[in-house]
C-alpha cells in the first residue's frame, strides 16, 4: 500500500495530521464503484459507519491490530474515497502519523473485507452479473459488510424481531458504550486478552477466572454511570463532554460522540442486565454477551470460521459452518442465513416478515411462513447459486423506488425505512409517498 503524505501531515495541529494510503483495486478496478459497494445493504447506515452523500466518501473507525491474533488494539478514523478514473482507493487516516507495516496491513484487510475486494468475491460478482443481466446494467453485485466477522454477527442479531429504527438505535448505543469503555480503560485496563485457539485446560480455567475478575471490575465501573446510562466524565479524569462537542472543547475520538463498534474483549465482562438496559437491547443482550465471552474464552474462533470458507462458497462448507453457527446461543435460521451471506454464501434467502412483504408486493405471492421456502425456490431457484443476490437486488431497487436513491438519503431519514412506509398509500407509487414524508418536493 503506497503512502501519500497529506498536505497537513506532520503539522502538529490537533485534528490536522493526516496520512494517506493508496489501496489498489486490482482485478476489480474496471467496474468497481465505491458508492455502489458501500450503499448496498442496510449495514452501511448503522453506527459507526458514516456515508457522506455530498463527497461520496465513507468514514468509520478501524482498529489497528498488531497481528492477526492480537486482542490489544487502538482505533483510528479512516476516510475512504475513490478518485475519478483511478485504479485505487484513497484511505485517509485522520490525526495520525505514518503507520507501521503491520498496522497498514490491518487497515487494508478490513477495508477489503467491508468492500469485498478479493479475487473470490470478484469472481462471484462477474458470475452473478452473467446470470442476472439487470445487475450488470445497474452495477449491483457487492453487498457491504463490516470490517470484522464479530461486528457482522452482532448486527445480524440486532436486525431480528424489530423495526429498522431500533436496529439503528441499538448499534449507535453500542458504539457510544464503546467510547465510554475506551475512556475508562485509558485509565484502568481491565479487558482480558483473547486466549489462543488451542490451549490447555489450565489456561482455560485461568481465562474463565480472568473473565470473572472482569465482571467484578465492570460492576465497580458501572457505578460511575448516571441513571440514564451515561458516563460520569470526572471518573475518567478527562475534561470532555461525551454528548456535546464544539471547537473550544477537546476533540472526541473519531470526531463525533460515538466510539468504534465494541470488540469481544470490551463486551465480555459486562453484566447482561446492564448491557441490555444501557443499549436497549432486550433479550439480545444475553446473546451478544454469550458470543463475546465465547470468543474471548476461545470457544469460538472467528478467524478459523472465516478460513473454513476456504474462499469457496461450496455446499459442504456451507453445511459445516451453518452447523457451527447453530451451536451458538441465539443463532436461529434467520440469523445464521444472514451471517452466512456476510461470509459469501448467496444461495439461501433469509426469510422473515420483510421477505413475505416483498413476495406479496413485488411478485404477487400470498406466501406464508409454511410455504415461503417453496415460493422462494420457485422464484429464485433458477439463479443458483446467487439466489440471495437476485432477491437483494430486487429489495434494494424497491427501497429506492419508495425512498429515492439510498446513497443520497439524509442520515436523519434512515430510521424512516420501516415496513409501514413500504406500503403504497392511496394506490400511488413511491414518488408521491416520498413527497408525503417530506423527502422530495412537489413540482
UniProtKB/TrEMBL annotation:
Q: Mind listing the GO biological process terms from this record?
A: base-excision repair, AP site formation
Q: Which InterPro entries match?
A: DNA_glycosylase (IPR011257), Oxidative_DNA_repair_enzyme (IPR052054)
Q: What is this protein called?
A: HhH-GPD domain-containing protein
Q: Which organism is it from?
A: Mikania micrantha
- List, in alphabetical order, the Gene Ontology terms for molecular function in this entry: 8-oxo-7,8-dihydroguanine DNA N-glycosylase activity
Any GO CC annotation of this UniProt entry: nucleus
Amino acid at each position: 500500500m503506497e503512502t501519500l503524505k497529506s498536505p497537513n501531515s506532520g503539522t502538529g495541529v490537533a485534528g490536522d495530521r493526516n496520512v494517506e494510503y493508496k489501496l489498489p483495486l486490482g482485478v476489480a478496478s474496471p467496474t468497481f464503484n465505491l458508492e455502489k459497494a458501500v450503499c448496498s445493504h442496510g449495514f452501511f447506515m448503522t453506527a459507526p459507519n458514516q456515508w457522506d452523500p455530498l463527497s461520496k466518501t465513507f468514514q468509520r473507525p478501524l482498529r489497528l491490530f498488531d497481528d492477526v491474533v492480537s486482542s490489544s488494539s487502538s482505533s483510528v478514523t479512516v476516510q475512504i474515497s475513490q478518485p475519478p478514473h483511478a485504479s485505487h482507493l484513497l484511505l485517509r487516516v485522520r490525526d495520525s502519523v505514518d503507520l507501521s507495516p503491520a498496522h497498514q496491513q490491518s487497515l487494508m484487510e478490513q477495508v477489503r473485507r467491508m468492500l469485498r475486494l478479493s479475487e473470490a468475491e470478484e469472481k462471484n460478482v462477474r458470475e452473478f452479473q452473467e446470470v442476472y443481466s439487470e445487475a450488470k446494467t445497474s452495477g449491483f453485485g457487492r453487498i457491504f459488510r463490516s470490517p470484522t466477522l464479530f461486528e457482522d454477527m452482532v448486527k445480524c442479531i440486532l436486525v431480528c424481531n424489530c423495526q429498522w429504527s431500533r436496529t439503528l438505535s441499538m448499534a449507535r448505543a453500542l458504539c457510544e458504550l464503546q467510547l465510554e469503555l475506551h475512556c475508562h480503560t485509558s485509565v484502568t485496563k481491565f479487558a482480558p486478552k483473547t486466549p489462543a485457539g488451542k490451549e490447555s485446560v489450565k489456561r482455560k480455567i485461568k481465562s474463565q477466572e480472568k473473565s470473572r475478575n472482569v465482571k467484578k471490575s465492570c460492576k465497580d465501573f458501572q457505578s460511575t454511570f448516571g441513571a440514564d446510562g451515561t458516563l460520569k466524565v470526572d471518573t475518567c479524569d478527562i475534561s470532555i463532554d461525551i454528548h456535546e462537542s464544539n471547537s473550544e472543547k477537546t476533540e472526541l475520538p473519531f470526531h463525533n460522540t460515538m466510539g468504534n463498534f465494541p470488540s469481544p474483549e470490551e463486551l465480555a465482562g459486562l453484566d447482561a442486565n446492564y448491557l441490555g438496559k444501557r443499549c436497549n437491547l432486550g433479550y439480545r443482550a444475553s446473546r451478544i454477551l454469550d458470543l463475546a465471552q465465547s470468543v474471548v474464552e476461545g470457544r469460538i474462533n472467528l478467524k478459523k470460521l472465516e478460513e473454513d470458507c476456504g474462499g469457496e462458497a461450496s455446499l459442504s462448507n456451507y453445511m459445516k459452518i451453518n452447523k457451527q453457527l447453530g451451536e451458538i446461543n441465539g443463532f436461529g435460521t434467520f440469523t445464521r442465513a444472514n451471517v452466512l451471506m456476510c461470509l459469501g454464501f448467496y444461495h439461501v434467502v433469509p426469510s422473515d416478515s420483510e421477505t413475505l412483504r416483498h413476495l406479496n408486493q413485488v411478485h404477487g405471492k400470498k406466501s406464508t411462513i409454511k410455504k415461503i421456502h417453496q415460493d422462494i425456490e420457485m422464484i429464485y431457484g433458477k439463479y443458483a447459486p446467487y439466489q440471495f443476490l437476485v432477491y437483494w437486488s430486487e429489495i434494494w431497487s424497491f427501497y429506492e423506488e419508495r425512498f429515492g436513491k439510498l446513497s443520497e438519503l439524509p442520515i436523519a431519514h434512515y430510521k424512516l425505512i420501516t415496513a409501514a412506509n413500504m406500503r403504497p398509500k392511496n394506490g400511488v407509487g413511491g414518488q408521491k409517498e416520498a413527497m408525503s414524508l417530506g423527502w422530495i418536493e412537489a413540482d
